[in-house]
Design goal:
There is one protein chain. This protein is mainly alpha-helical. It is 62% helix and 12% strand. The protein has helices spanning 4-10, 19-39, 97-123, 125-129, 133-166, 169-173, 195-219, 223-226, 228-231, 237-247, 252-285; strands at 42-50, 59-67, 76-80, 87-91, 185-190. Strand 3 and strand 4 (87-91) form a beta hairpin. It is rod-shaped. The chain starts with a helix and ends with a helix.
């Protein structure tokens, strides 16, 4: 097992200063905020029923608790009927489990992948770039997560809007039989606090922006962007030489023939010049 100092010496932490590594760290943090604000939510609302004809049956503080994953149809509460001491058991309306769990699941998997990718960037950079497989896989996963963040965030935003309507104290009062009687008075004591869930939606779309923006920086690491040199990086030397020779044809035989022909032609011109020029020069001397 390597010690902490040895791991630090082996790792290339300079990658965290580059957009590729820096954005991965932001994705890791923002995914934590996304699933923590949604998955850890619990809310409560309070309504009151004031029975005018039977004050003893009134209940001015009816508390209704609900939480993730927002199976509201399973959330029950008791309300007075204002007829003696009789009560009725009621349930909220709606089931938003699929949208909430889908959003949290994407956030958890994004957290795990971004953490794993950061570790690979730092300590296994050579393996990551070997045969160009690492950047290609990273690129495909980044595109998929970008799309999933958009879908899950949009679905969760719509579900949250419906949850706000279903847990509105004014809407809950309409479920009570006592509130349908004009002589009784029903009111809203306190509504749920939505700051946590609103923040989760914001972090969901921020994660989409981060992952979509990181597509370009991951694409730059692939052979598709780097072109020719990257295609030959993982190939053996013999294959590289064969590929280069195919792209740059070289006819050795024709070159030799043309070179020989040119050399022979030069010799013939020199010999003809000597044969003609030699005697002419000699006769002039005579």
């Amino acid at each position: 097992m390597l010690s902490a100092n040895e791991l630090v010496s082996v790792g290339t932490f300079q990658v965290l200063k580059l957009p590729l590594g820096f954005i991965r760290v932001l994705e890791w943090l923002f995914s934590i905020f996304a699933f923590a604000t949604c998955g850890g939510y619990s809310g409560q609302l309070w309504v009151s029923v004031d029975c005018q004809l039977d004050k003893a049956s009134s209940n001015l503080s009816i508390g209704i608790d609900f939480a993730y994953p927002f199976r509201l149809h399973q959330v029950s509460f008791e309300a007075p009927l204002c007829e003696g001491r009789r009560r009725e058991r009621l349930f909220l309306i709606g089931d938003y489990t699929s949208s909430a769990e889908f959003f949290v699941t994407i956030a958890v998997f994004a957290f795990l992948y971004s953490f794993m990718a950061t570790i690979v960037y730092i300590f296994f950079q050579n393996k990551y770039r070997e045969n160009n497989r690492g950047p290609l896989i990273d690129f495909i996963v980044t595109v998929v997560f970008s799309f999933m963040w958009l879908v899950s965030s949009s679905a969760w935003a719509k579900a949250l809007s419906d949850i706000k309507v279903a847990t509105d104290p004014d809407e809950v009062q309409e479920l009570m039989s006592a509130c349908k009687v004009m002589t009784n008075k029903c009111g809203s004591v306190q509504g749920p606090r939505w700051s946590g869930l609103n923040t989760s939606v914001v972090f969901g779309f921020l994660n989409f922006i981060l992952w979509a923006g990181n597509i370009w920086f991951v694409f730059k690491e692939t052979g598709w962007h780097k072109g020719g040199p990257a295609r030959y990086a993982g190939a053996p030397p013999e294959k590289q030489a064969e590929t280069i020779n195919q792209q740059q044809p070289y006819n050795q035989g024709s070159f030799d023939q043309s070179g020989g022909y040119s050399a022979q032609g030069d010799q013939e011109q020199v010999s003809e010049y000597s044969a003609v020029g030699g005697p002419t020069s000699y006769s002039n001397q005579m």
